[in-house]
Amino acid sequence: MRRPLAAVWRREAGAAAYHAQASRPLARRPASRYHHRVSFLSRLLATPREPRGVALALGGGGARGLAHLGVLSVLEAEGIPVACLVGTSAGAVVGAMWTTLGSAGAVAARWREFLASELPKTLPDVKLAEDVSSRDSTILQFARTVRRGTTVALALGRRSLVEHEDLQRALAFLLPEARVEDLHPPFAAVATDFFSGRPVVIRHGSLRAAVAASSTVPGVLPPFPLDGAWLLDGGVVAEVPVREALAMSARPVVAVDVSDLPGDDAPDTIKVPRAILRAGQFTEAALRRELLRDADLVIRPAVGGIHWSEFFRAEEAVTAGREAATAAAAAVRRLAGLRRRPPRRSA
After folding, report:
1. Terminus-to-terminus CA distance in the chain, angstroms?
2. Smaller CB count within 10 Å for the chain: N or C?
3. Cα→Cα distances 81→247, 258, 290, 334, Å
4. What is the DSSP letter of 268?
């Protein structure tokens, strides 16, 4: 059976000018000798077009990550399409829930059911020390505050403070059984390779496993085994996965940053542990600024006062995300290629 032949209008290289009347279809000649002049209609028919919308990069932050839910509710209300979604840690949890459950309202309802269940009681007992700042990164706060029947000093000889079973039970409640590659819009979770320190973008396989790997905080949880690799929390190297979103979609990238800058402690009040942690905070902040530089737009909900473990402040975080996204809605619409504003829908 003969293959259908696609003819294009071309002119020989080196011709002084292009004359429409002199053009002729040369589909059977070697293509290397000719410049291609492809019309808009040809490109439209030959190239699959990505739908309008934006690519979302949702950063990590524990309970602060619930602000992503407020951002998503505004995008829904504004009728702004999401071309793809990439999440790190808490951003992966919220993004996966939204992609599978279908709406911000459904995600909020599932979170309320989770918090009202017995499952949160099975998670690590967290004691907040007075000197723990909500400005610390999620990973630093985990490392300094998580306790489960032992002190951090005694835990230094252990592989981790918590095993994966507790996290898996929570994810089984929050997320349905699904394959990452089957989700729409396309979704990816970002983790960190334990050996190389490089970001790992998970776009295939079990959704629950992908989110668990992306949320594996170093020291608190043991490295997560997945497809022959050992993975850690994506926030180690990609706290806001902007570059991963750029690689996944040609659409403009809107980043949602739920982190915060280092605190303003007086120098004479800083002890040795705080000084070491503060240096790490500055390193994290510098990396984050570099990552966010590549985003087309950055949304920063005002969640700096919420500790990573304060899930009882979920409504506050959601409200902060909603307010920040509402303020940025016009800019997001322009990036998404939307001119007219559709009738508002309830979130």
Report:
1. 54
2. N
3. 18, 22, 27, 12
4. G
Residue owning tokens 């590549």: 294
Question: Which of 3-23 are b and which e, b meaning 16 or more Cβ less than 10 Å from the residue's Cβ?
Answer: eeeeeebbbeeeeeeeeeeee
Q: Residue 195 and residue 197: Cα distance in Å, rounded?
A: 6
**What does pTM read for this prediction?**
0.74
Closest alpha carbon to 251 in 77, 75, 103:
75
**CATH code for the domain defined by 54-336:** 3.40.1090.10
User: What's 185's DSSP letter?
Assistant: S
Give the Cα separation of 136 and 304 in Å (integer): 9
Q: How many CB atoms lie within 10 A of CB 240?
A: 32
Nearest to 248 by CA among 189, 196, 206, 194: 189
Distance CA 195, CA 230 (A): 8
Tens digits of per-residue pLDDT, 170-208? 999 999 999 999 999 999 999 999 999 999 999 999 999
Q: Is 163 helix (H, G, I), strand (E, B) or coil?
A: coil
DSSP alpha helices (H): ranges in the chain?
A: 40-46, 67-78, 90-101, 104-116, 119-122, 138-145, 152-155, 164-174, 207-214, 242-248, 272-292, 314-336
pLDDT digits (tens, 9 = 90+) for 257-273: 998 765 555 565 556 66
Phi, psi of 345 (to 5 degrees): -115, 150
